[in-house]
Amino acid sequence: MxxxxxxxxxxxxxxxxxxxxxxxxxxxxAHGGIEAGPYELVLGWVNEPPxxxxxxxxxxxxxxxxxxxxxxxxxxxxxxVTVGGQTRPLQLSHLLGGQPGEYAASxxxxxxxxxxxxxxxxxxxxxxxxxAEIEEVEPAADYQFPTTIASLPELSQQLTILQNENQSLQxxxxxxxxxxxxxxxxxxAGLGLGIFCxxxx
Length: 201
Known about the structure:
By secondary structure, the chain is α+β, with helices and mostly antiparallel strands. The chain contains two helices and nine strands, in the order H-E-E-E-E-E-E-E-E-E-H. The longest helix has 49 residues, at 152-200.
């Protein structure tokens, strides 16, 4: 049991370090042609396919539809992601190593499924309120070779199960000890009573 805990902890630590080094290559774009006034928005993931438990980022590109020029400095635009009824605001910043008009909002997807992106605020003077779904997050095991490694969420779930089993085992051991102690006390009491009765004869 102790060895299993140690292996899980080492795997969690290793995957955490691996997640810090996600790439900055040009992303495959999941959604293009989203119009917001005079602007065209492109939404997707920085790293595709998006994999469960691996560091990634929402990709956003903003172009002026009239001039076809990228739009820089989106300080007044807010971004959030929703999955499974839970929403989290993200920090939008210029895509590292990207072109002008390219932005990223990094996080680690820990639930399989389709994530919904909400954009609100302003692009320059244009009010924006856009909601769009991006590509579904998939299990990393489908792309691993030659061996598969459980993702951080899967390892956390396994660790929780082991902890619950360990607590249940400890409770059983404690109950058994008390039961044995009770049997010992009862036996000693019976022995004492027998000796007492024998001496009175």
